[in-house]
Amino acid sequence: MAVIPVYNTLALPDANIYFKTDYYKSMTNKEPSMNERVILAVLKENQSREEITEKSFYPIGVSGLISEINSNGYLVVRTRYRVNLDEVTVYWDHDLEVSVSRRQDIDDLPDRELQQRLKEMKNNLARMSENQQNMAMTRGYIARWTTMEEIAAAMSPWMINTNEERYQILANDSRKERLAMMEQLIYENLEMFRVNNEAKSAQEEDYQKIYRESALKKQIEYLQKELDDMHPENVSDIRKLELKIEESGMNETAEKEARKVLNRLKQEGQNSAESGMLYDYLDYVTGLSWKKEPAREIDLDQAEKVLDEDHFGLKKVKSRIIQQIAVMNLKKQQTGSILLFVGAPGTGKTSIGQSIAKALQREYVRVSLGGVRDEADIRGHRRTYIGAMPGRIMDGINKSGVSNPVMVLDEVDKLSASYNGDPASALLEVLDPEQNSTFTDHYMNVPYDLSDVMFICTANTTDTIPEPLLNRMEVIQFQGYTPIEKYHIAREHLLPKAMHAVGIRDENLEVTDEAMEAVISDYTREAGVRGLKKRMDTLCRTAAVELVKGNHEKITVEKNALREYLDMHPIRHGLVKKDPKPGIVTGLAWTSVGGEILYVETLFTKGNGKLVITGQLGDVMKESAQIAVSLVKAMYPDKAEMFEKNDLHIHVPDGATPKDGPSAGITLTTALVSVLNNKPVPPELAMTGEVSLRGQVNPIGGLPEKLMAAQRAGVKKVFIPADNEEDLKDVAEEVKEQLTIVPVHEIREVLEEAGVA
Ligand code: ADP
Known about the structure:
Blueprint: E1 2-6, E2 16-20, H1 21-28, E3 37-43, E4 57-70, E5 74-90, E6 96-102, H2 111-131, H3 139-142, H4 148-155, H5 163-171, H6 175-200, H7 209-230, H8 237-248, H9 252-268, H10 275-287, H11 300-310, H12 315-331, E7 338-343, H13 349-360, E8 364-368, H14 375-379, H15 392-400, E9 406-410, H16 423-431, E10 439-440, E11 447-448, E12 454-459, H17 467-472, E13 473-478, H18 483-502, E14 509-511, H19 513-522, H20 530-548, E15 555-557, H21 562-566, E16 584-591, E17 594-606, E18 611-614, H22 619-635, H23 640-645, E19 646-651, H24 665-676, E20 685-687, E21 690-691, E22 697-698, H25 703-713, E23 717-721, H26 733-738, E24 740-744, H27 747-754
Parallel strand pairs: 1-3, 7-12, 7-13, 8-9, 9-12, 14-15, 16-20, 18-19, 20-23, 23-24
Antiparallel strand pairs: 2-5, 3-4, 4-5, 5-6, 10-11, 16-17, 17-19, 21-22
The structure holds adenosine-5'-diphosphate.
Adenosine-5'-diphosphate binds near residues 349, 489, 529 and 533.
């Protein structure tokens, strides 16, 4: 399928479009062949093949077949359908590839009406060609034309509209409106022919460029003047704003406010100090979409397909989203509950938001809340401020251009209160279905209906989200990916995308399985796939340089070349220590980048019963240490002397990542008993669990990530709280297969199993 970039061509379906064969060859780098399928893709600017990028085209094109190859150096494309250019790829050697889908018309034109208007048009053309010499050449064609598109396309070389105006006809989905646009175009140009004809008798040379240009310019001037005379108000900005207010469909309160501001602007005059601000305001509120979009039925199968296309795995998340869509279909409502996606960076939280928008066929907009401390960031500044602006929510609505986008609010866990008010409470108002139909941004000062917006929030952790906000949302956990999942994500998504971004074809680059596995295990350390994505991007960029240098037709990246391709050293993962020592026990921690192993070290030194705790530990973990000490003292009353005559030092090394939480309780206790009884614990034995003063083992969070880290580090056996057994269903099979997982109820079991009791 050849892609023909076109500029200034009236590309329409059901027409014959002429090309110079040379143009075809230069744009496609191919010889034309009969009946070949082609896509005409409309350029936004007049560019040569070498200058074209993915962004050069408008989103809609036309498909067709080469129906004639003429020996005079022309070829004819018979066009068929309008198509969406779903994806455009520009390869490094400038070859173009597009994937397209047929774009449906709005069928609002009865066939009878079409035939009637076509007949009228042909009659008019026939009459003009009789009377005017410069129309004579059309005479022979009129009878042969069977569609309005054919007529418009045939006349287009003489038309004086811009590339953009031509494209607008193609882009209109309504058949009726397209017909009207074509008619207008043709009639306007016939009118122009008539004027030209009168001037032409003065000068015999036909179609001379210089003459045509000046005639056209004169005509444009003349028409513009005539138009202005007809509607003098057209020229005034005030009138334009007035019209915009009328047309915007804004609610009553908003319209009142807008008119008030407009009156101020009229009184103050356009050169006053305030006018800029007033003007900006009106421009902003009239630019918003105030229309209620109709709720549409979404095909569940199709939605599922869209979600599967963009993201590997994430089954639970996807099925929850499908449920939500089903509910929306049933209730004919735009939104339902507010989802909160929680998980480590790079687990796909934001990007699946984008897929959801695609599945719902809605606009997508992302609003980042990271570091927002000021209420005005959410709700806007009052207009009395210099440089006042709308808040981020309304800004997002404005960017989306609709009233019902899918809005992803990123990093809600990073909001914080300050002396400038509490942004969380403002956000509460945004998300509350009871209140958000009249959300009032301070800048706008009038209510706007947010109830059709689908809000999706993302966060790394729920710990720092204020309770009232958290209560409004339904939490969906994004677990980290296992190496096997990462492998699939890299193969099926990240690598193809990275290749596409730099224009490398499938056949130009191969990354061996071994290399891919090594990238995952040795060049990234994360729960998500952000680092992996960066590695794929770097790898492809390096490969592209090699290809362009012309050294190779195809590059195969092997494991041992990774260091060079990625330009970095492999990362060394924490593997479990080999030699057991009394007082040292392997624990499991959860951090924002996923799970990690940690060691708890304990040591008695000469002293008088002091407790020393070092390492980057938070308050909760320090408390756990106190509990462990009390518990051990109670369990071994006969060893009381040991605690009295010594200082006890507890240390958790690798302080780079601050750790907190109670889940090291059983690890701390075991380490203490281990040093107390001078019995070592094998390092391949790891554990996680909170311990109570009575020795009960209590459940903890982040189990899947912790077990994944344990398996990666070479741990063989793990103790987990019995109450966490249910979470094992979220743990990948490959992880479970390689670990012996022992659920425990009490600290005694732990101590006995670990061999330190
Ligand atoms: P987050 O918002 O959780 O930090 P992102 O949505 O920004 O993560 O994802 C980072 C990148 O990883 C994106 O390019 C995304 O497309 C990709 N990605 C994440 N998860 C998957 C997945 N399951 N399948 C395919 N690509 C994924």
